[in-house]
Write a structure and sequence with these properties.
Distance between the termini: 16 Å
Structural class: mainly alpha
Helix content: over 70%
Largest sheet: none
Number of strands: 0
Number of domains: 1
Order of helices and strands: HHHHHHH
Length: 205
């Protein structure tokens, strides 16, 4: 690997890592601006929606960059998974555009769109699980993160109401998914550091 290639890889890894880390930070802050479920339909917080848009756009950036990196490394299945995850996040981004003025009909449309994201999340996380540079538990965590959202969607369509249980399941899914994204950032950086150390040791000899 030439010096120029090394510099490009470092830049790419910085983009991936910081996109994921800042997206998680935006998500955590958005939890302090949660929707008001005491009224029907619930009142959405504008700051929370903006933070949700920021978070999602950064995950799109990180997944796209990581997908490109893995394509160059010829790790095809995982690269497809992260590319598909970027597309999935694009659908989620649309939810933040549709959600600001909720009504019964509007909420049904939001949850129909949310259901569509599950059909994208399952195969994308399944393909990402082939990425052996991440520990097995990280890949499993990504799959488990989908389960609370499946439960949330099922409960909503059973009652067509946003109950506290539905809200808790949504929060559980967000917590697990953001833990997964944070792990992606950590191990992407960690693996790069270990590769750099190995390369420097080889040069020393």
């Amino acid at each position: 690997m030439t010096t120029t290639d090394e510099q490009k890889e470092k830049q790419l890894i910085r983009i991936i890592t910081w996109s994921f880390y800042i997206s998680v930070l935006a998500a955590v802050i958005s939890w302090f601006f949660a929707p008001d479920f005491s009224v029907d339909p619930p009142k959405m917080d504008e700051i929370g929606l903006l933070l949700g848009q920021l978070q999602t756009s950064l995950v799109i950036l990180g997944c796209t960059a990581l997908g490109i990196k893995l394509t160059e490394e010829k790790k095809t299945l995982a690269s497809i998974g992260f590319t598909m995850m970027a597309i999935t996040q694009g659908v989620i981004f649309v939810l933040y555009v549709v959600a600001p003025e909720p009504s019964k009909e509007n909420l049904d449309e939001v949850y129909k769109l949310f259901t569509a994201t599950i059909f994208l999340l399952v195969p994308s996380m399944s393909l990402i699980a082939f990425y052996s540079d991440f520990p097995r538990w990280v890949n499993i965590l990504g799959m488990v993160a989908i389960l609370p959202w499946i439960g949330e969607i099922s409960l909503y369509f059973a009652s067509h109401k946003l109950s506290d249980t539905v809200g808790m399941m949504d929060f559980g899914g967000q917590l697990l998914m953001n833990s997964t994204v944070c792990s992606w950032a950590y191990f992407t950086w960690k693996n790069r550091s270990e590769s750099s150390d190995e390369l420097n040791n080889e040069k020393a000899f």
